[in-house]
Design brief:
There is one protein chain. With 248 residues, the protein is an alpha/beta fold. Helices cover 32% and strands 19% of the residues. A 7-stranded mixed β-sheet has the order 3-2-1-4-5-7-6, sandwiched between helices. Strand 1, helix 4 and strand 2 form a beta-alpha-beta unit. It is globular and about 55 Å long.
């Protein structure tokens, strides 16, 4: 790991959920890419996102993704992040790109009307919200509540037929447990990219509804929620740097 990466490592993975940590980091860090840059999954994105569509970048951070997409012809990208330092810095950096807008916003309370975006795109944002989780099969009530709030908002701002694009290292047997809910009113498809280590790109299409398989998964999860709890731990939350080890 390079020195430039090391200097931004938090003393605890829990700090990845702390806006003060990100504000401080964004004051000096120019850019960082989780799960590789745009070129690594551009071939997948082109299949599901049109260049003229209205796109919301959820938790944009200081990633170059929006600018790279703009350079590739995507003409309308609204970027939101809960770090005011990040938003101000990125707005200044890209002030000559009229098609890119930057807003400070909480993903749990998006300040947009219903059904205004063709695409909502996130890359690593949801993973950062789950850094304290120790059991990938059963996340904590707090994390589940947080993710539910965010996913409800994502579904709300999507147009009928709109797509939620989620880029993550989370494998389908873990991530589909979070996405397979009828109230989100979307179907779930997934793809992978990368060679030595696979990353995943999920495409959730508003209005299509869950497949029979995913609907069955939701029913099973509801049944599991009513079963007696078990105490199985799969990883220690701070045993490794959660996000800095997953760049391509």
């Amino acid at each position: 790991m390079s020195t430039s990466k090391m200097e931004y490592l938090p003393d605890s993975n829990a700090r990845y959920k702390d806006v003060d940590y990100w504000n401080e980091r964004y004051r000096t860090e120019e850019s960082f890419e989780w799960f590789g840059d745009f070129t690594k999954f551009e071939h997948l994105l082109k299949q599901h996102v049109g260049t003229e569509e209205n796109i919301l970048m959820l938790g944009c951070g200081n990633s170059a993704l929006s600018y790279d997409m703009y350079q590739a012809g995507y003409s309308s990208i609204t970027n939101v992040d809960y770090s005011s330092v990040c938003v101000e810095s990125m707005a200044e950096r890209h002030k000559d790109c009229a098609q890119l807008s930057w807003l400070c916003m909480d993903a749990r309370r998006l300040a947009f009307s219903d059904g205004v975006f063709d695409v909502v795109l996130e890359k690593g944002t949801l993973d950062a919200m789950l850094v304290e989780e120790t059991d990938p099969w059963k996340i904590s009530e707090n994390a589940a509540r947080l993710l539910h709030q965010v996913l409800l908002e994502v579904s709300r701002v999507l147009k009928p037929g709109g797509r939620f694009i989620s880029v993550t290292f989370a494998q389908p047997h873990f991530r589909k447990r979070l996405y397979a809910r009828a109230e989100y009113d979307w179907s779930i498809k997934h793809y992978h990219y990368g060679s030595s280590f696979h990353y995943f790109l999920y495409v959730l299409t508003k209005g299509e509804g869950l497949s029979p398989e995913d609907a069955a998964l939701e029913r099973r999860l509801l049944e599991e929620a009513e079963a007696p709890p078990t105490d199985v731990r799969f990883q220690e939350a701070d045993s490794e740097d959660f996000l800095n080890n997953i760049g391509l």
